[in-house]
C-alpha cells in the first residue's frame, strides 16, 4: 500500500465519521423534538418514537417532514 492510498483511506474515514455523527445528531434531535412536542397525544408520541427507533434515518426524516409540520397547524 502506498502513501497516496493511505491518505485516501484516512480522508475517507474522517468523512465517514463526520457523516455518521451528523446522522446521529439528526436522529437524537428528532427523538427530543417528539418527546417535547406538547400537542401530541401519548399514543401518537409512542408511535412516532417507535417509528424513529425502528427506522432511524427514514423515521427522523418523516418526523421533520410530516410530524412536526402537522402539529403546527393545530397550534
Name the shape in a single word: rod-shaped
**Topology pattern, helix = H, strand = E:** HHH
Distance between the amino and carboxyl termini: 60 Å
Question: Which strand-content bin applies to the residues?
Answer: under 5%
| Strand segment count | 0
Mean pLDDT: 89
How does the SSE layout of this entry go?
Elements: H1 3-36, H2 42-54, H3 56-72
Helix pairs in contact: 1-2, 1-3, 2-3
If you had to describe this structure to a student in words, what would you say it looks like?
The mean pLDDT is 89. The protein has helices at 3-36, 42-54, 56-72. It is an all-alpha fold and 75 residues long. The chain contains 3 helices and no strands.
Would you kindly provide a brief summary of this structure?
With 75 residues, the protein is mostly helical.
Keyphrases for this structure?
75 residues; mainly alpha; 3 helices
